[in-house]
Design a protein that fits this description.
four-stranded mixed beta sheet; alpha+beta
């Protein structure tokens, strides 16, 4: 069994009540199959053992109690919001999409770093011409290391970005939004390998920004900056449900699947 990038407790909210199994649908294809939660949303050696323990004890355990309250349609406190906001932001950073985005950004980040270091070393050469050879050697070493990084970002760097203290502003913004929970019976909400959805080009800080996060097959969190939305729970219409499920279907990357239950 590998490391779960989508937590097992979370996935259990999308299993069948009959047999406890979860349906996985292949994105872009027709293949679908039932699986046990322990074999879903995981990858061997995905984290280090230290990160796996940290996520389980510090992030997942507190949030599981909040998720249980929401699945029971109970009131969410301000402390609950902070715990779940932290869980959601960490979820954004622990999933496969995060690693893909880091690799896509690596060449641009490396180029920026190279330009900054080139300028620093050039300034140093002007101030210390007697150390020109040594500084040029250091510049060559930095360029070589950045070139390696741009082609293959180290896993440890990605892991270092996961802890919530690396994203306090995002957590605070999500916490400040109005949270409302939308409910359905049939059809049901889907989830995926990247369950927290927002428009990437917009982010979550604009007045028109929204975030959705399926809590179970029957409840989804809708976070918005709108002032006319009240806290609590309410039924969702079928058009809005289709839109949210479409977001889940589009918010992951092949070969990762869409996860849900089939009645």
């Amino acid at each position: 069994m590998g490391d779960h990038y989508v937590p097992k407790y979370y996935l259990r909210g999308f299993t069948s009540k009959i047999d406890g199994m979860i349906w996985t649908y292949e994105k872009g294809g027709t293949n679908k199959f039932q699986s046990d939660v322990k074999n879903t949303g995981h990858e061997t050696n995905y984290y280090s053992p230290e990160v796996e323990r940290y996520l389980a004890n510090k992030i997942e355990d507190p949030a599981n109690k909040v998720i249980e309250k929401i699945r029971g349609k109970r009131e969410v406190t301000e402390q609950d919001k902070e715990i779940l906001a932290t869980y959601m932001v960490v979820m954004l950073k622990r999933v496969p999409r995060s690693r893909i985005m880091m690799k896509e950004m690596a060449p641009r980040v490396a180029q920026q770093q190279r330009e900054e270091w080139d300028q620093i070393i050039s300034d140093s050469i002007d101030k210390h011409p007697d150390k020109t050879d040594l500084l040029k050697k250091r510049r060559a070493e930095i360029r070589n290391n950045l070139e390696k990084y741009s082609k293959n970002p180290p896993k440890d760097f990605w892991l270092s970005l996961i802890p919530p203290e690396r994203s306090p502003n995002v957590i605070n913004a999500l916490y400040q939004m109005t949270w409302h929970f939308l409910m359905c019976d049939d059809p049901v909400f889907l989830t995926c390998d990247n369950p927290v959805y927002y428009f990437p080009w917009m982010g979550i800080g604009r007045p028109e920004s929204e975030v959705t996060f399926p809590i179970s097959s029957h409840i989804v969190l809708w976070a918005t900056w709108r002032k006319d939305i009240k806290k609590g729970y309410s039924p969702i219409d079928k058009q809005a449900l289709r839109e949210i499920n479409c977001e889940s279907a589009c918010n992951n990357d092949p070969p990762f699947g869409i996860i849900g239950i089939e009645n």
